[in-house]
Amino acid sequence: MTRIGASLDRPSKSLPNDLVGVNSIEDQKPIRILAMGQGQEKLALHALLQAQQQGQWLLLQNCHLLIPFLTSLEKELEAVQKPHSEFRLWMTTEPIRDFPIGLLQKSYKVVVEAPSTLKLILKSTFFNLTPNVFTESDHPAFPPLIFILAFFHSILLERRKYDKLGWNINYDFNESDFRVSFNIIKSYLNMSLERGTFEIPWITIRYLISEVIYGGRIIDSYDRRIIKTYMLEYFGDFVFDEYQLFHFYMNPSNLTYHDYFIPELRDFLSIKQQWLLQKANIHIDPAIEKNFEKYLPEKIAETLQRNMDKIDQVQISSLFHTRKQADSKYSLKRLFNTQKQQQINDAKYQFLSKNVLFNQFFNFALFRELYSTYVKQLPLYNPPNVLGLNLNAEINYYTKSARELWSHMLDLQPQTFEIDNNFNREEFVKTLCDDILQQIPSKKDLRIIKQKFNQRITPTINVLFQELTYFNLLTSQMWRSITELKRALKGEIGLSFELDEINRHIFNGLIPPLWRTYTPQTRKSLGNWMEHFRRRNQQYDKWYQDGELKLVWLGGLHVPESYLAAITQIAARKNQWPLDRSTFYTSVSKWQKYDDIDEVTQGICLIDGLYLEGAGWDIDNRCLVQQKSKQLIQLMPIIKVVPVESHRLNTANYLPTPVYATSDRCNSMGHGLIFEAGLYTREHYSQWILNGVCLLLNTD
């Protein structure tokens, strides 16, 4: 069983030794591999029969894509009387609910988990690289760019841990994406060398990696924005700045957090600068020396010993991945004319960087060991800040894990039991049904409501009629299903599958799936949802009694997009704008509630009840700020929605912020995104993009 991001390309080192005498995959006969999918059923059964007769190994990959076939496969295996003694059947699948229990009970189960922390992902990435991979390009920027690519790849995988704060949609980034990106970087750097230049085509590299390779898997525009932001933060000339060292993440105010950097750059730069200034009479700073001793492999001294007698002169290059070049040349032998062993120990520090000895002397293959050594000393735990997320993202992660665990425990509990000595499950559900029935309002009479407005029907009033139609459908379904469930619990009618499902959900405090069909998107429990239901009813009553709403609770509408479109349509008619060139912008006001409004708001729409996730809001300065500790969401002040012609829209210093119906954000079809708001910021956009900032219509 493989988790998303895991790979079976290499045999697992942790397989049990009692697999019927099988200890090593490499020692067996060649394995026939068949990827499962539509139309592969007959081929798989034929391969199975052949493998049984000839004693072959058969690997069926991605069995989760063809669940109906697994039932037939189970029957075929049960019918086998005397299979060949060397026959083995391997199957890979993602975790799914419908996998046949019989197959699982007869099989050895091996769970291949994808690496779960930044350190482990980096470690796995460098483990899969061959030792000579850094010799594939002589460009001085090649090794550090590969390390940056590995870090970038690991960051993308690690973001999945944080659910919707990481990605709106869970993407299956894998090693093939890294490999193709690796080849792109190598190819373009080698082309630069062929032209006799060290120029790096950053724009091309960024585009191909973010838009084609990794971006080719992205189907959500806001997820693609995250990829682009990482590329702009990690890939550029600034990475090789000699005066302002590059860090993936550094927190000087908190020394307990690790410093994430490109290992060859931070200390090598100091060495190179001292070399050029002192003409190789280098004095090693104790702090730098300590870092070298901690991070760098001992094989460098051996490399120096082997090469010392072969090289008379080495060009001292100040390229350091910039366009500058140093013309000075120094003899290596001059540095080793005294105590040889001591000089070797010194040279271990002095001549480490390829930027000093360049590729005439330095073995690029050492970079794999260098980077692997650096990765090993990284902490196993990395805070969300390293990924650009707020520390509060960790709370979301643990909350989600606990919620999933609780949900599975509810599924495992018995269907009938006593809550106490005098109160059983059926009585408990009956009590809840009675309580729900009391809160269901009578149907809204649309005929009378339409007569009331008569000739004063506006686009927003049409939205009201649409909303009331949806609400009537919901109340009808709730009344019918609750009434029938009560009769079934009394034994008057049979308990159908639909009623049993409603019974189970009500008992567990969940919204029945039938009701969800007629209600806006929500993640609320049944109790919280009933309060939400009551508030919706109150807003609808006020709406058709008072006419146009002065303050709209957008989260209480079934189709909130329709209301915003109606507001824009009214403004376009009034101002004679072309409708296809009309839009709106948002502005966060200083008002916390309706009574605080102290100015005329003619021609604009006021909405409230929106929640900010991924950032905080400074009410006084009206701008985005970092979240307070343990504050996962923040209720926003009243927001103005102002219709405007498209060409007059000014978005400078405003972060385009998606507004979602729930914290589920949106799915692969884009359902859940309501509109895009603009939030004022004094910081760079990238900070908030990586934080996963968004607005929500409803809390959980």
TrEMBL record:
Domain Dynein heavy chain AAA lid: residue ranges: 144-260
Dynein heavy chain C-terminal domain segment(s): 400-697
GO biological process: microtubule-based movement
Domain Dynein heavy chain region D6 P-loop: start-end pairs: 29-111
Transmembrane intervals: none
Signal peptide (UniProt feature, chain positions): none
GO molecular function: dynein intermediate chain binding; dynein light intermediate chain binding; minus-end-directed microtubule motor activity
Protein name: Dynein heavy chain
Domain of life: Eukaryota
InterPro entries: AAA_lid_11, AAA_lid_11_sf, DHC, Dynein_C, Dynein_C_barrel, Dynein_heavy_D6_P-loop, P-loop_NTPase
Source organism of the structure: Didymodactylos carnosus
